[in-house]
Amino acid sequence: MPRSPKQLAAWLLLGLAAVAPLPALADECPAERAVYGLETEDGPLELGFIPARSMATIASDLYLYLTTPQRTYWFTFSVSNGYSGMTLWPVSDPRAPDAEPDGPRQLLDLDAEGEDLAERQDVARSLRFYALDEDLTFWFVPPNAGEPAPHYVMMPEIGLTLWYSPRALTEDATADRDPIPRGIFQQTACLDEPREPAWP
């Protein structure tokens, strides 16, 4: 069930009380070189942004990756008009050779009819993305290459899909439950060089 802004703010403040102070490097680190981490009982989670050679989507020229102890998931960004905010859309690996001609494949189609449409809509609702400044100001748009990295990143509902419908977010047909907790990803490093660009 989606969280209200008050619930998210309260949950965020509680979570931030448990994390270490963020180094000043976030102000100096371009988004495509930032590395974010979240420690869990099952192992560390890593999140970051990969630049596209041209444009991943109209919303951002960056892909987002999420690496769990099981696998890596890939996403593009979508920004809705009005107050809806940012949403992640699952795609295939944009670095793979078969992504070179036209980019990665979209893994979630809300336009196709079918008995599982309601389930696909639930998946989309779980993919809300939040980026925050050091003072907890929420961003309205995702970062682009060359822009400062956000201090904190959240995807508080993605764990629902990774638990109940992980195959909606990956091409791995063997994907099983991939448990991750609700948590706040904090920048842990700034790479010396940007990562290799992805297609297209």
Could you provide a short overview of the structure?
With 200 residues, the protein is α+β, with helices and mostly antiparallel strands. The protein contains 4 helices and 8 strands.
Q: Catalogue the unreliable spans.
A: 17-24
Order of strands, widest sheet: 1-2-3-4-5-6-7-8
Mean pLDDT: 89
Please give the number of β-strands.
8
The biggest beta sheet is recorded as: 8 strands, antiparallel, barrel
Strand proportion: 15-25%
Provide the number of structural domains.
1
N- and C-termini, Cα separation: 35 Å
Shape: globular
Total helices: the number is 4
Order of helices and strands: HHEEEEEHEEHE
Q: Class by helix and strand content? A: alpha+beta
The oligomeric status of these chains comes to single chain
Helix share of residues?
10-25%
Radius of gyration computed on alpha carbons: 16 Å
Q: Could you explain the architecture of this structure?
A:
- A hairpin with a 6-residue loop joins strand 1 and strand 2 (45-51).
- This protein has an eight-stranded antiparallel β-barrel.
- Mean pLDDT is 89; it is low at 17-24.
- By secondary structure, the chain is an alpha+beta fold.
- It has four helices and eight strands; from the N terminus they run H-H-E-E-E-E-E-H-E-E-H-E.
